[in-house]
Specification:
alpha+beta; NE0471 N-terminal domain-like; three-stranded antiparallel β-sheet
Length: about 120
């Protein structure tokens, strides 16, 4: 298979992409949202707390509406390998949860997608 450019060459890009990369479209905000994103926003859902029980392979995510999502801790390899102290060192944001010491993130959107919540 032949490549469209050779090493050391600058690939050509469209004028629209070049304008975007140069910041010409700063006023244009492209919002990509689906039903799940709207559901999260309308309900004001956030992850509030995280807990775990290593001996029973359990990770708990407590949401702002007091619902609890559970997953096997082993389904998150980077969390399973972590020491307990690092698991307790998390921060939450409106989009999910972050473990700075582990450089790991879990999004609320991802957790809810796995829950197969029906949004009407």
């Amino acid at each position: 298979m032949e490549t469209s450019f050779k090493p050391g060459m600058i690939p050509s890009i469209s004028d629209e992409l070049q304008a975007f990369l140069n910041g010409a479209n700063d006023e244009e905000v492209v919002e990509i949202a689906d039903d799940l994103d709207r559901f999260i926003q309308e309900k004001g859902l956030e992850i509030r707390h995280f807990g775990f029980a290593r001996d029973v392979d359990l990770a708990l995510f407590i949401l702002s509406d007091a619902k609890v999502i559970t997953r096997p801790l082993s389904s998150f390899p980077y969390l399973k390998k972590a020491i307990d102290w690092d698991l307790d060192q998390y921060t939450v944001s409106e989009t999910g949860i972050h473990w700075p010491n582990l450089d790991a993130d879990i999004s609320l959107r991802g957790l809810l997608q796995e829950e197969k919540i029906l949004i009407k």
